[in-house]
Structure formats: C-alpha cells, structure tokens
Hints:
Layout: E1 2-3, E2 12-18, H1 22-30, E3 38-44, E4 51-55, E5 58-62, H2 64-67, E6 70-72
Antiparallel strand pairs: 1-6, 2-3, 2-6, 3-4, 4-5
Amino acid sequence: MKTLREVPCGQNAKVTRLTGEGPVRRRIMDMGITKGVDVFVRKVAPLGDPVEVTVRGYELSLRKADAEMIIVE
C-alpha cells in the first residue's frame, strides 16, 4: 500500500481508496480523484509541496498532505 505522494514523477497510478474525512475528503473528490481513477504525476516541487498531477485530462496541484491521503496501486 502506497500513497500518491510516493509515486515518482512521470508515473501513472490507479487510486484504490481515499483516507481522511469530512471537508478534506470532499475537496479531493471534488477534484475528480475517486476510486478507480488513473492519476499521472507530472511534477513534484523540490520540497514535496505541491504535487502536480493530471486527472481526467485536468492538470491539478495537490498539497503534500492531501496526496498522502490518496492510496494508489
């Protein structure tokens, strides 16, 4: 089990589940990141925040803490 934060740049990952609760989980889901979706990691800032990803054709920036709540395979 690994998180989106651990996926190297230039790699795809499939979301298996989301951790977290309440508004944080809702914010992640509102970005289109749900179970079964493919996420492509485009870039990670030098200190790891933010993580830039492509989801469903959209380019998004995620906070490091949010990326750690997304479990991928």
